[in-house]
Design the sequence.
């Protein structure tokens, strides 16, 4: 549970220092010091830890006011605004509903565009060494989030039944573009040193993307080491089903202004063991990667440079030369982890530069410049000659202005632009996706204000996408908006929190949906695009209600989404190159609806004992399509 407070200390005769914040953190009820509280300057990626007496010190060239997040086991996470002074006293309220790694919050930690929006927050740091072996499996702890997986290194998230290009992923402020349109293409992001994940479900994340119609996932690296210290973390995990190992080394060192983090990882998995004692053919995979983060700040500026590299070799299960294949055709008698045919070779490079300029205590400007490189090769019958060899280069620039005239009003405005280039390698035997250029530009503005006993948010966004490929070119312009209301109040024995959102979203067709024309061996089909496709249109109504007291908390979240021009791939009654033909098509009158819930209970006589359970159900159907009979959507 996350609460937002404004704390402006005032002491008669205090002395102000712009270079140092010193204070003590106490229990709100007992007034005793809380030891080893984690203190993080949210806007600077600076972290420190209180000592055994609850005393902390943060020094360096910093503005006179900073936003600080306080975290301690068994206490509510608290965000405060500090004005520099000689001694600060802060308090934390005990949290008997300490939900460990899963939080459903009304004010998110990174996606801070709206004070009305509910955000699912997952602390990967708290999962420890017993967490899942891959990042996407960790997200399955959130209601409404599932996993589409072809193996530990080849998995992607599904939010309320939607995946692929409808789910947008950000890493440290950078939009990840790496051929995620393919059902057999993973994200290529290792869990190593990822500190947290936030999820917005449905088209409510307009300040980040207008085409995140299924939802948005925001991943953030773990903080740097505390000021004037260093740390070395070594981890190794093993699982028996694939004899899989994951090993990582993370080194961090921080001074007052300069911070550094370096990480390396290596994973290896053999063929997947089946219940009958055999092994799934070519399900082996291997991954090696590295991360580099550098942070630096002055009194007015904060800079952060992120670099991520990954190299993966992923086997392609389900491949056989049998003329009359059956289940046995896709099984091996012996388990192996050596590279074999067919397989995918995936290389990713992501570099991201973030800078924030603090104009004054009410205004700041964020600049984010990044570039992503992805090379996806599929080797089918030949060891050195790829069947498919695709290159994707994507460069993006974000500029955002935040204005907070007072503690309750927030105005965000920004512009985003990106350029993508898709090309095929000269040695590729086949071409699935034609060479193309894609240019996007979008602008948005959002305001959050109090309205009687409610908080109100309104956001508007416009986007334009231009796609060019000889001999095809097209433009797609979309206008979207969202309205949100939220209220929390305290009853006699319960605390209530209610939020309501109505939001629209639009997704221009991806180049694969427009231009595909070739064999995709990863899915064993011949794929055809449709150049007449139009932008998908979505309208979602989302209601989130939760109540809690000292022993129980309950969250209920029904939703319904209506869509026109909904694009999905459908099997055709034809064969090309001995492969079944699948073609991208669109349909109107699609409805996606469902319910999500979470219950957390701990008895009064045993506060150490916690019971947690969650439920989610999503349905997709063509309920309002007059031209066809009602049918359920597939690939959900």
Sequence:
């Amino acid at each position: 549970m996350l609460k937002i407070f404004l704390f402006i200390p005032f002491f008669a005769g205090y002395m102000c220092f712009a270079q140092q914040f010193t204070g003590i953190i106490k229990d709100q009820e007992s007034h005793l010091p809380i030891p080893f509280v984690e203190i993080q300057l949210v806007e600077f990626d600076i972290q420190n830890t209180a000592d055994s007496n609850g005393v902390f010190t943060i020094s360096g060239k910093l503005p006179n006011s900073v936003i600080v997040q306080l975290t301690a086991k068994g206490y509510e996470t608290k965000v405060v605004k500090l004005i520099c002074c000689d001694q600060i006293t802060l308090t934390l309220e005990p949290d008997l509903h300490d939900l460990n790694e899963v939080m459903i919050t009304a004010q998110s930690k990174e996606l801070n565009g709206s004070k009305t929006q509910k955000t699912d927050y997952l602390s990967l740091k708290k999962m420890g060494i017993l967490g899942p072996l891959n990042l996407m499996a960790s997200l399955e702890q959130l209601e409404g989030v599932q996993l589409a997986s072809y193996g530990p290194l080849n998995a992607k998230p599904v939010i309320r039944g939607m995946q692929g290009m409808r789910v947008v992923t950000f890493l440290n402020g950078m939009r990840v573009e790496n051929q995620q349109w393919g059902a057999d293409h993973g994200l290529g992001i290792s869990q190593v040193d990822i500190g947290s994940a936030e999820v917005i479900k449905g088209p409510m994340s307009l300040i980040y993307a207008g085409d995140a119609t299924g939802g948005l996932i925001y991943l953030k690296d773990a903080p740097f080491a505390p000021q004037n210290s260093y740390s070395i973390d070594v981890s190794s995990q093993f699982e028996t089903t694939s004899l899989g190992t994951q090993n990582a080394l993370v080194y961090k060192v921080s001074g007052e202004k300069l911070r550094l983090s370096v990480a390396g990882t290596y994973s290896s998995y053999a063929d997947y063991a089946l219940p009958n004692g055999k092994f799934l053919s070519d399900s082996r995979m291997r991954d090696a990667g590295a991360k580099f983060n550098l942070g630096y700040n002055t009194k007015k500026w904060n800079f952060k440079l992120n670099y991520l590299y990954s190299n993966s070799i992923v086997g392609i299960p389900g491949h056989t030369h049998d003329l009359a294949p059956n289940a046995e055709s896709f099984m091996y008698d012996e388990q192996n982890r050596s590279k074999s045919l067919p397989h995918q070779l995936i290389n990713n490079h992501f570099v991201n530069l973030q800078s924030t300029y603090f104009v004054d205590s009410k205004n700041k400007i964020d600049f984010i410049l990044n570039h992503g490189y992805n090379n996806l090769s599929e080797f089918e019958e030949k060891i050195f000659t790829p069947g498919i060899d695709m290159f994707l280069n994507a460069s993006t620039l974000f500029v955002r202005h935040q204005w907070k005239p007072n503690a309750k009003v927030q105005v965000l405005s920004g512009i985003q632009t990106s350029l993508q280039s898709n090309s095929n390698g000269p040695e590729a035997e086949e071409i699935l996706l034609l060479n193309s250029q894609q240019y996007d530009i979008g602008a948005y503005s959002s305001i959050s204000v109090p309205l009687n006993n409610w908080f109100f948010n309104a956001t508007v966004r416009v986007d334009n996408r231009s796609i060019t490929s000889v001999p095809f070119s097209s433009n797609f312009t979309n206008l979207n908006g969202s309205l949100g209301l939220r209220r929390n109040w305290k009853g006699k024995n319960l605390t209530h929190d209610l939020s309501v959102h109505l939001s629209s979203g639009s997704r221009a067709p991806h180049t694969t949906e427009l231009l595909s024309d070739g064999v995709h061996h990863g899915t064993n089909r011949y794929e055809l695009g449709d150049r007449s496709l139009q932008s998908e249109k979505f309208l979602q109504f989302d209601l989130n209600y939760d109540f809690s007291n000292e022993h129980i908390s309950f969250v209920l979240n029904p939703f319904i989404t209506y869509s026109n021009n909904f694009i999905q791939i459908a099997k055709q009654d034809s064969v090309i190159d001995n492969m079944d033909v699948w073609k991208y098509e669109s349909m109107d009158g699609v409805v996606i609806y469902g319910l999500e819930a979470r219950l957390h209970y701990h008895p009064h006589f045993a506060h150490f004992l916690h019971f947690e359970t969650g439920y989610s159900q999503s349905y997709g159907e063509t309920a309002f399509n007059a031209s066809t009979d009602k049918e359920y959507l597939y690939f959900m």
The helical segments are 135-139, 511-515. The chain has a mean pLDDT of 84. The CA atoms of residues 107 and 115 lie 6 Å apart. The longest strand covers residues 472-490.
